[in-house]
Description:
Blueprint: E1 9-12, H1 19-25, E2 30-34, H2 46-56, E3 60-64, H3 68-78, E4 84-85
Helix pairs in contact: 1-2
Amino acid sequence: MTAKDGEKVTYTGDGENTEGVVNLAVNSDLIISEAYLENTKGHSSVTGAIELLHKSGAKKLALVHVSRKAKVNFPEISGEVKNVFMPDDLEILNL
């Protein structure tokens, strides 16, 4: 989705990254990515979402639909990656 002022937002569902997803996300101002589980074939993950952030050159990454376990392990999984966050339910995001 591209807003009238040119800001681009990409939403990904619960699936693995593909070349098509990366191409859609290129230069996004914000990627909203489901990231439920780690190491589960065919499903999204925090690691996969961060990989998408890097491959696409996007500015920010919002992780949604994150499991409790992934939330607990988030600091370890995300490391020093900047501009990655987990918004609260119903939180309004500003680009």
